[in-house]
Amino acid sequence: MTQSTIRLGVAGLGRAFSLMLPTFLADARIELVAACDPRPAARAQFEKDFSASVYETIEQLAADPALDAVYVASPHQFHAEHARVAARHGKHVLVEKPMALSLDECDRMIASCAEAGVHLIVGHCHSFDSPYLKARALVAGGEFGKVRMIHALNYTDFLFRPRRPEELMTDEGGGAVFSQAAHQIDVVRLLAGSRVTRVRAALGAWDPSRPTEGAYSAMLWFEDGAFASLTYSGYAHFDSDEWTGWIGEMGNAKDPENHGAARRRLRTLESPGEEARLKAAGTYGGPDYKPPAAGAAPGTPALHQHFGPLIVTCDRADIRPLPSGVLVYGDDVRQHHPLPAPAVPRFEVIDELVAAVADGVPPLHDGAWARATLEVCLALLASGREQRDVVLPTRA
Ligand SMILES: NC(=O)c1ccc[n+]([C@@H]2O[C@H](COP(=O)([O-])OP(=O)(O)OC[C@H]3O[C@@H](n4cnc5c(N)ncnc54)[C@H](O)[C@@H]3O)[C@@H](O)[C@H]2O)c1
């Protein structure tokens, strides 16, 4: 079958949706035909913006015969149920990271999609970003030998963005491990190209008013002998985009003078309820909603999205994915492999979705792939809490 347009329904019109919106608007292969969200303001905005159907529940959305696929962008704790409902109605599923909160949920999602004969793709995740895919292709080319070691680092204001109370509780899916390690682990696994066998992690939850993990450091060991270190801090002090030429996660130019903005904004609030209201006001459909910056500022070259400084050490080169391409520091030469500017941000997600739905190409970021990333996230939490190495089981 070849199908040039995917008719997409969206479950959850929050921040994830607004980050994907520039992609959906600019990519002719996507037609936004319906959405569901319990927030009336979000539904009204979507109806107005797209002259599309809106529903209160996933059941109603998934039953809409006009859809080919559902983009599940609801909070983590709903991913499993929403994916299963979509599959039951014969819709392909694109579900945001993290895939779910437990491996049992992942297994049920995979089984439901397989039974229904629909594709399950987990994304957007930063491992879709072209510089990482290019670095992976360079490694796979074999010229530089085996991957031996990877270091990944990211310092952001993650913990100090406006949150609902449950987003600050790890057991409800809150914190840096479920939301941010899900990206970093996925990128590192993609580049290592081998199964994670063992994890050792330390977790940081240092602010009693925001009691979930805001930071972690982890060592991962891979089946082929490679190892990786991952460090993340969301405590809104240093911003590691400074080490990526002030190009932010979305490929956008960032202003260093904005230092401290996230903390300053929170300081003006008096209660968790007020914070939740601030978040809702700034979310799609809310009175203070502003579309997020995507791509470069006007007049500057468009750059790729990324998830912080990262370096891959191979036998014969160190390789650095960058927003502009990939730098290779070989035995004798240092070489920049530039990437064409992305005309559509996150087009890679649509490439994978269309290839799967229209041409039956098995997706890279399928359920089994994302389950393995969640398994490492859960191992980070167990290792940090129990202060021990966690050995991951081999799957039959
Ligand atoms: N890939 C990325 O860059 C990225 C960025 C942000 C969030 N995410 C992921 O997207 C998911 C949503 O996060 P967010 O930051 O957008 O959260 P959010 O709180 O901003 O938005 C969630 C939206 O889902 C709606 N919702 C709540 N319950 C629902 C239900 N039962 N059915 C349908 N909609 C429902 C909410 O009203 C809200 O509009 C999370 O899993 C998160 O990890 C991914």
Q: Please, what is the CATH homologous superfamily of the largest domain? A: Dihydrodipicolinate Reductase, domain 2
Poorly predicted runs: none
Q: Give the names of the bound compounds.
A: nicotinamide-adenine-dinucleotide
Proportion of β residues? 15-25%
Query: Can you count the beta strands?
Result: 15
CATH architecture of the largest domain, by name, is 2-Layer Sandwich
pLDDT averaged over residues: 95
Based on the model shown, name its key terms.
about 400 residues; alpha/beta; Rossmann fold; Dihydrodipicolinate Reductase, domain 2; 2 domains; nine-stranded mixed beta sheet; six-stranded parallel beta sheet; about 20% strand; binds nicotinamide-adenine-dinucleotide
Helix and strand arrangement:
Elements: E1 6-11, H1 15-26, E2 30-36, H2 40-50, E3 53-55, H3 58-62, E4 69-72, H4 76-88, E5 92-95, H5 103-116, E6 120-122, H6 130-140, E7 147-155, H7 176-192, E8 196-204, E9 215-222, E10 227-233, H8 261-267, H9 272-282, E11 310-314, E12 317-322, E13 325-330, E14 334-338, H10 347-359, H11 367-386, E15 390-391
Parallel strand pairs: 1-2, 1-4, 2-3, 4-5, 5-6, 7-10
Antiparallel strand pairs: 7-11, 8-9, 8-15, 9-10, 11-12, 12-13, 13-14
This protein binds nicotinamide-adenine-dinucleotide (NAD).
